[in-house]
Design brief:
single chain; 89 residues; alpha+beta; Aminopeptidase; 5-stranded mixed sheet; 35% strand
Length: 89
């Protein structure tokens, strides 16, 4: 299982998997985290890496007491499909 890393120097969450690193870029301010871009290395695509990473990012936002602004289409679609995260909007 990958470990979510909050790389504050690069303003992104990182999800290292099998020698690659998937990530979600963000901007933070006033108790809101804007998730601006999610990327999974091509060699890791189709394995559920993006979904697992976004779930971990949303759980981290909840644990931090942050609201979420999904500016990335992948993140927005994930939240639409997973009603348990809609309270973060």
């Amino acid at each position: 299982m990958a470990q979510l890393i909050d790389n504050t120097a690069r303003n992104r969450y990182e999800w290292p998997v099998d020698g690659g690193v998937a990530f979600v870029d963000y901007r933070r301010g006033d108790g809101v985290i804007a998730l601006t871009h999610a990327e999974v290395p091509p060699e890791l695509e189709g394995r559920g890496v993006g979904s697992a990473m976004v779930r971990a990012v949303l759980e981290a936002a909840r644990a931090n007491g942050e609201k979420v602004r999904p500016q990335c289409s992948f993140v927005a679609a994930y939240i639409r499909r997973h009603k348990e995260f809609q309270d973060l909007l």
